[in-house]
Design goal:
Elements (H helix, E strand, L loop, with lengths): L6 H7 L40 H13 L4 E5 L2 H12 L5 E5 L4 H11 L5 E5 L4 H11 L3 E5 L11 H10 L3 E5 L4 H4 L9 E5 L13 E5 L2 H14 L5 H11 L2 H20 L4 E5 L5 H6 L6 E6 L6 H10 L4 E2 L9 E3 L11 H6 L6 E5 L5 H12 L6
Parallel strand pairs: 2-3, 2-4, 4-5, 5-6, 10-11
Antiparallel strand pairs: 1-7, 6-7, 8-9, 9-12, 11-12
Helix pairs in contact: 1-2, 2-9, 3-8, 5-6, 10-14
Bound molecules: pyridoxal-5'-phosphate.
Length: about 375
């Protein structure tokens, strides 16, 4: 390996050398729950599958390298990773400060599991760093939890400033980097303490496997997270690790294409008479500094007078290439309606306040031929004109 291998070289090679026994070029899939010990009192570094598995280890080494961390811990899902990170920092009486446009599953975890145990979360718009500083001083949270870009309005947070503000009050900054992927930004290098991903999304990239990972900047937290995973059991299975690793190899080229296609789609939407607002981070100066590309997620609102839902329904039902589905980050394009799908759990007034209005549509722009995607959008948006 060269001294400073680039992103794609690391995605393809780190943790993935040839198998020492057979020379197999691709890391073998170790489907085993236990490991035979060569003699009494001695093992080969592997004892039991909940704790360690070589296939999972390959994935963790690669992900740690791509996020510039000291290590990675792979979990059965993004939610299992998020829960383990929260557990590593919180005991009853502690507080969390979280972005108000938090992923719905993490919101549910904080409200329905942590709050009843005496761990309260305060939600705020983290775009205003001065206000965040005031909140950090007043609330004294142990954890600041955010996503950048956020869901579904693609708001970008100033990660270096938020990291400095957190550290001034001894607070851990956790960044859910799922939307950007490690190709577009590495929050640990900007001062974050822990990065989490739902590897179900861009990292796996093919909508065929559920998984999550936490990547950390210090050895102590790494040890704690490995301990929590082994103790609570939310381990990523070897087959899931193998599939995720297979997806990971092409993350860089996929992200380039996602961003190129999303850029074209944004151009098209901005010029379309039925479209009101278009949300994409490309014009944001913080995003221009922090991100390599602006990713594949695009949101927009339809122009409406009166109830937007009939119009939204007509548009959504006309799509032929974009699938109406939850999730994101796969090679195939998806379309979703945040108000009734990903953000349905929020009260209507709260959704409205956060800009998750009924006319909002979210796209996960895939890597199909972009002209086909634009044509599909064009014919779907004809549904906005009918009545
Ligand atoms: C999907 C998602 C999660 C949860 O991940 P799972 O793999 O579904 O458990 C967390 N954060 C974000 C931003 C997500 O998109």
């Amino acid at each position: 390996m060269p001294n400073h291998p680039g992103f794609n070289t690391r995605a393809i090679h780190v943790g993935q050398g040839p198998d020492p026994v057979t020379g197999a070029t691709v890391p073998p899939l170790y489907l085993t729950s236990t490991y035979t010990q060569p003699e009494f009192g001695r093992h080969l570094g592997y004892e039991y599958g909940r704790g360690d598995n070589p296939t999972r280890g390959s994935l963790e080494e690669a992900l740690a390298s791509l996020e510039r961390g000291v290590g990675a811990v792979a979990f059965a899902s993004g939610m299992a990773a998020s829960d383990a990170v929260l557990r590593s920092r919180l005991v009853p009486g502690h507080r969390v400060l979280a972005a108000e446009d938090l992923y719905g599953g993490v919101y549910r975890l904080l409200e329905r599991v942590y709050r009843p145990q005496g761990i309260d979360t305060h939600y705020a718009n983290l775009g205003d760093v001065q206000q965040v500083q005031d909140l950090l001083n007043r609330i004294r949270p142990s954890v600041l939890w955010l996503e950048s870009p956020s869901n579904p309005l693609l708001q970008v947070m100033d990660l270096p400033r938020l990291a400095r503000a957190s550290h001034e009050v001894g607070c851990t900054l956790v960044v859910d980097n799922t939307f950007a992927s490690p190709y577009n930004q590495n929050p640990l290098e900007m001062g974050a303490d822990v990065v989490v991903h739902s590897t179900t999304k861009y990292i796996g990239g093919h909508s065929d496997v559920i998984g999550g990972v936490a990547i950390v900047g210090d050895a102590e937290t790494l040890k704690t997270l490995r301990f929590i995973r082994n103790t609570t059991g939310g381990t990523l299975g070897p087959f899931e690790a193998w599939l995720t690793l297979r997806g990971l190899k092409t993350l860089g080229v996929r992200m380039q294409q996602h961003a190129a296609n999303a850029g074209r789609v944004v151009e098209f939407l901005r010029a379309h008479p039925a479209v009101d607002q278009v949300y994409y981070p490309s014009n944001n100066p913080i995003a221009q500094q922090q991100m390599r590309t602006f990713g594949g997620m695009v949101s927009f609102t339809l122009k409406t007078d009166g109830d937007p839902l009939p119009r939204v329904k007509r548009v959504l039902e006309r799509f032929r290439i974009f699938s109406l589905a939850e999730s994101l980050g796969g090679v195939e394009s998806l379309v979703g309606h945040p108000a009734t799908m990903t953000h349905a759990a929020l009260p209507a007034a709260e959704r409205q306040r956060r800009g998750v209005v009924d006319s909002l549509i979210r796209l996960s722009v895939g890597i199909e031929d972009v002209q086909d995607l634009v044509d599909d959008l064009s014919q779907a948006l004809m549904g906005a004109e009918e009545s």
